[in-house]
């Protein structure tokens, strides 16, 4: 969630008008999109080590992952690094502007050849100084004569599949993954968000004693806002939420309280940007929360066992930052989001994990929690496929 008193409101709306219309209608009726029935899942899905390993293998190791915005590599010879569910990855844009992804593991003996992000034509391993170009080829090798009996062409960085999907960076962690196909269902609904101009402002990270799905679930409904966020978000947003499924992926959106005024206004007088929040959720575990002025990405990955996960929150400006005031506003937005999730959502996620580990037999997902139902049905079906 973001600081909703943000002074920067000049960005054009990035939100589809039909989505805004549906939300305004829900405010008018004081209702929300619902599921047909309540449903349950066994609590063991959060604790079972066998299921945990299957998820790690199928969803993460052999999955495609949204890991950032193409705007993070704004020109030729730029790069970013990522930890994707424990796998170190280097993403480059070469001198011709083409994106590449590699295992960030030196082909000599595995050390990481790059850290952080920035501009670079070459990446030099800190261990013995082998170097690689932006296309991954081995470019330098001290005392190369000592390695002549290994074909140099086989010593380039190991390539990984990568694509820009509507300006989002999508990386596959194994050769059998097609990043474009994996996101084809939702890609048409991601147009107009200008992800290729987004600039990252800051990051926050957590390690939680909770299953990765529980940490994901806290992002999927506004039902808890009136109680868990009673002193914070409850004065800012309403639970007149709408939702849509796009294959495995999904989207939900809800209004801020400022949207109430739109009910009595003709559409031509609706404010731009619309005072709503749109939350894209990507298989298996990425949440992209769009406010009128920023994008907040939560990447949630399994930890070392079923009861642990890592969460990274990245705050991006929807356009390159133009002033110190604008940067400060984005930082405030990220700090506010980090405060809410870090002190309210994540502690309760850890409580839910303790409940599951204590022997609770099942978790319940009500009609007012349709996104939870979508995701638990999707994960279950994907495990069975
Ligand atoms: S591990 Fe990279 S140069 Fe030796
Ligand atoms: Fe929350």
Short description:
Keywords: 2Fe-2S, Iron, Iron-sulfur, Metal-binding, NAD, Oxidoreductase. The chain is α+β, with helices and mostly antiparallel strands and 385 residues long.
Description:
One of its GO terms (molecular function) is iron ion binding. Pfam families: Rieske, Ring_hydroxyl_A. Its cofactor is Fe cation. InterPro entries: ARHD_Rieske_2Fe_2S, Rieske_2Fe-2S, Rieske_2Fe-2S_sf, Ring_hydroxy_dOase_asu_C_dom, Rng_hydr_dOase-A. Keywords: 2Fe-2S, Iron, Iron-sulfur, Metal-binding, NAD, Oxidoreductase. This protein is an alpha+beta fold and 385 residues long. It has two domains: 17-62 and 187-384, Naphthalene 1,2-dioxygenase Alpha Subunit, Chain A, domain 1 (Alpha-Beta Complex); 64-176, 3-layer Sandwich (Rieske Iron-sulfur Protein), CATH 2.102.10.10. 23% of the residues lie in helices and 28% in strands. The protein contains seven helices and 20 strands. The protein has helices spanning 17-29, 49-61, 179-182, 212-217, 225-228, 324-357, 370-384, and strands at 39-42, 64-69, 78-84, 87-93, 99-103, 117-119, 122-124, 131-133, 138-140, 159-160, 162-165, 168-172, 199-208, 242-246, 249-255, 276-282, 286-290, 294-302, 309-317, 362-365. A seven-stranded antiparallel sheet has the order 13-19-18-17-16-15-14, with helices on both faces. Strands 6-3-4-5-10 form a five-stranded antiparallel sheet, with no helix packed on it. A hairpin with a 5-residue loop joins β4 (87-93) and β5 (99-103). The longest helix is centred in the last third of the chain and has 34 residues, at 324-357. The protein is globular. The model is unreliable at 1-11 (pLDDT under 50). The structure holds FE2/S2 (inorganic) cluster and fe (ii) ion. Fe (ii) ion (FE2) binds next to loops.
